Amino acid sequence: MKAKVLTAILIFGILAGCFSSCKNSPRLYIGEYTYQSDGKINIGLITGGVDVPITDKMGQMQIMKGDEKGKVSIIKTSITGDIKRFSGKVSDGELSIDEYTYEKEIKLDTIINGKAKVTYTAKGKLRDNTIVFDDNYSGFFTEKETGAVGTIKSDNAITIAKLNNVLYVYDTRD
Asked: Whole-angstrom Cα distance, residue 135 to residue 153?
């Protein structure tokens, strides 16, 4: 009797361990995705704030297994040809993208013209075959003509990445 109870507890413990570790598995996120981003980046200057649309709006994203346990590598290729490589990790069922800093020229009509140093991070959750990322942009902007420095922050920036359907076609001819 005790052996049956002990066996049942042992099996339950093993299954519980398997299910709890599954949510931290990068395998759930690995694949080819098509993404679309939306939101604005606010550049705060002394004269006031200016909202600039996110330029990395659409493209392809590949998530691959990383070098360390729980880590992933992400390659994001925008429709405009910009390629960015991120690293991230899966923990508590959430994919966190590590800080990524880049510089970008921003010109918006006659309102703003200068260079931005942007730091990007994101956290995303997988729902069915779609990852919903909350994007965070921060950093500094230097106006080209005046040298004025402002801050960069995002509000309600989001990226939706949908897993691409993969169709394998096999040639059965000899």
From this structure: 11
How far is the first Cα of the chain from the last one, in angstroms, to the nearest whole number?
A: 60
Side-chain half-sphere CA neighbours of 142 within 13 A: 6
Backbone angles phi, psi at 60, to 5 degrees: -115, 145
Both tokens of 123, joined, read 């956290």
Burial class of 89 by CB neighbour count within 10 A (0 to 12, 13 to 18, 19+) = middle
The three-class DSSP label of residue 54 is coil
The pLDDT score that the predictor gives to residue 18 is: 43
For residue 174, what are its two tokens?
A: 């000899």
Q: Which residues of the chain have pLDDT under 70?
A: 1-24, 166-174
**Which DSSP string do the residues of 53-93 spell out, in sequence order?**
E-S--EEEEEEEE-SSTTEEEEEEEETTS-EEEEEEEEETT
**Burial (0-12, 13-18, 19+ Cβ within 10 Å), 131:** buried
- Residues contacting 81, CB < 8 A, separation 6+: none
Q: pLDDT tens digits for 18-54?
A: 444 455 677 889 999 999 999 998 988 877 788 888 8
Residues 147, 163: Cα–Cα separation, whole Å? 43
